[in-house]
Amino acid sequence: MADQSTAPETNINDERAVRRAKRQALIDAGINPYPIKSEITAHAAELAEKYADLEDGGVTEDEYSLAGRIRAYRKQGKIRFIVLEDVSGEIQLFCRANTLGEGAWELLGQLDLGDIIQAKGTVIRTKRGELSISPTQIVLLSKSVRPLPEKFHGLTDREVRYRQRYVDLIMNPDVRDTMRKRSRMVSLIRRYMEGDGYIEVETPMMHAILGGANAKPFVTHFNALDRDYFMRIATELPLKRLIVGGMERVFEIGRIFRNEGMDLTHNPEFTSMEAYCAYSDLQGMKDLTMGLFKIIAREVCGCEEGHEVITYQGQQIDLSGTWRSATVAEIASEVCGEELSIDTPIEHLREVNAAHGIEWQENWGAGKLLFELYDELGEETLINPTFVCDYPEEVSPLAKRKDDDPRITDRFELVIAGHEYANAFSELNDPVDQAGRFAEQVAAKGFGDDEAMGYDYDYVRALEYGMPPAGGIGYGIDRMAMLFTDSASIRDVLLFPQMKPEVVTKADIQAQVAGAKTDNASADVDTLYSDSETGASAEVAKMGKQEAPKLETGLTRGQAFELLKKYNEDPFHVSHGETLEGLMRHFAEQYDPENVEFWGQVGLLHDLDWEKWQDDQTHTVKTAELLEGAGADPRLAHSIQTHNYDLNEELPAPEHKMEKVLYACDELSGLIQAAARMRPSGSVTDMPLKSLKKKFKDKRFAAGCDRDVIRHGAELNEMELDDMMASVLEAMKAIAPVGDIYVKDQSGQSAE
């Protein structure tokens, strides 16, 4: 067998290259580092249990074959200690030269951490008390040519952990445990539902008509029919068709697709369970939910029956007993310290909202005003499970109205630790009412609501045959997994969460294919690069990682400000420039402290030409001319032009971090300032993130602020939408005097 000295010459400081050389040396010596055959007769955990009573220094004749990954490797003369990890746990290999053959002993010298091997030998316990296998045979099953990271667990590595989940699973046993718990939870749900008489069904993933929820869909093209279809946003309507057909209890656990943002509790592709039960009602759905959550607490979290108490993010949550049911009005009354209801005069409800810093609109009725108090103030106070009932019809347009008060709907949401886990209805089964509500949805679509449902003629036709009264409920499986595994983020319970494209360079690809044996038809590196998922330009991405050079605009701040005022007479436009200047300076201190002045002038002058040349194709093009005439460095105009690249393909795309921040801040700051004007204080200083998120979702509010541009700004900065909103909101608060001047200008008040 060739030893390391015969391997091809490599850079000994490049561990990956060294490992590839070892791989080649094995092949040259006639050893296949990736054989087909392997043998496993036991796992580490079962041996630990079986030989728990073996005394220190004890020896057995019991022989087993195990396989797993090398997690630790220590040499001591003619002895090698290897920690082998398999799916069940770890066990030590106590390797001795006199019990291994010459070839196997020589092979040990070519092994590295991360290699997958098979070891066959007898069970012993060392004198120091370590249960071990004394191998008589070692077989390499897979040579690891990329070294495992020394430290992989932690907040700073989280993006890498999610993207390279395979490494995360290798390095972090708690992640494997989380995923096992999730799998067990889903299995329990199926067994529980089947035990309650429900039938699991499968419904189509692609729908010709959007329905079942208000959400933006993913669209795909069905070639055989030559028409667009929607990836499903809910399973509701197909399942209720089955209730019409006489399948009295049905459920489906399935993937749902919503073309929306990503945050701690949302992923565009997620798992839900919807269940429908004929001749049931909300009480039936409550009983189903309490039983389901309690059995998961017992089986997954180890709780005792009757004492189903778990911990979530430091909060103790009691799932035992009968859960509280409370109306929206009751919870709003509790947090406001006075009795409120849908009969409370609108003027007083407006006063209460304003007193708690909640902005309201003139067209809101009592139900909407009452709901806002619950949603903004009450929901987050609910720690133990609570069925929140009696939602106003104004905020539940598709729910069945209560018989005794049509202003209230027969609906509940399950809230635990301030988050929603289930949504249940007494299902609407009146075909005429349903047709009318579909018509309202289509009208909303005509007014620009791209989340509104279409008119589903077939579903109304199904209801015309008669659907029995039924209770229906939907659960967020991923959120349930978060709850029962004590995970803060939805990404922590998804094996493969959605991620932004990764930056891959040609050099990265070259390093992988180097030395590969291919035929003459193999593609070159350039072709492989163009065919792979490379994300943004690698060269561009690298810029953000390099030490930033000192940048000069060629203008003093005073000269830049005078230039802004020369071409902008409207105080509103001047204030907007100052606001962006403040934001850019704020973020420059964080990302590029050497160039705060350059960042600031980019923000100050980003809309230099807008007042006099309000055209998307001319915007920033004219700015470049004006800056050149003023003697500014061309880099200033280049950076400014990037924030209009999506509307003028001739302009450069954002590459530098500064340019990406400008793109994100420009549109998002406008939404924040519009939201601030709605607040009683007229300021951003007391605006919570939750309020901003609600305004973002309400497309009727500040319709001129393009939500897709805001989303793209977050993507450019490789941030979650929620994180971007929080970051810019905090920056707006930090520069509040400037931002508030901008708000007053938009209100037509003095900017003094």
Automatic annotation (TrEMBL):
CDD domains: LysRS_core, LysRS_N. Gene3D superfamilies: Bira Bifunctional Protein, Domain 2 (3.30.930.10), Nucleic acid-binding proteins (2.40.50.140). Its EC number is 6.1.1.6. It is found in: Cytoplasm. One of its GO terms (cellular component) is cytosol. Residues 182-501 form the Aminoacyl-transfer RNA synthetases class-II family profile domain. One of its GO terms (biological process) is lysyl-tRNA aminoacylation. It catalyses: tRNA(Lys) + L-lysine + ATP = L-lysyl-tRNA(Lys) + AMP + diphosphate. Coiled coil: none annotated. Mg(2+) 1 binds at E413, E420. One of its GO terms (molecular function) is tRNA binding. Pfam families: tRNA-synt_2, tRNA_anti-codon. InterPro entries: Aa-tRNA-synt_II (IPR004364), aa-tRNA-synth_II (IPR006195), aa-tRNA-synth_II/BPL/LPL (IPR045864), Lys-tRNA-ligase_II (IPR002313), Lys-tRNA-ligase_II_N (IPR044136), Lys-tRNA-synth_II_C (IPR018149), NA-bd_OB-fold (IPR012340), NA-bd_OB_tRNA (IPR004365). Keywords: Aminoacyl-tRNA synthetase, ATP-binding, Cytoplasm, Ligase, Magnesium, Metal-binding, Nucleotide-binding, Protein biosynthesis. It is an enzyme of class 6 (ligase). Its cofactor is Mg(2+). Mg(2+) 2 binds at E420. Binds 3 Mg(2+) ions per subunit. HAMAP family: Lys_tRNA_synth_class2 (MF_00252). Homodimer. Belongs to the class-II aminoacyl-tRNA synthetase family. This is Lysine--tRNA ligase. It comes from Parafannyhessea umbonata.
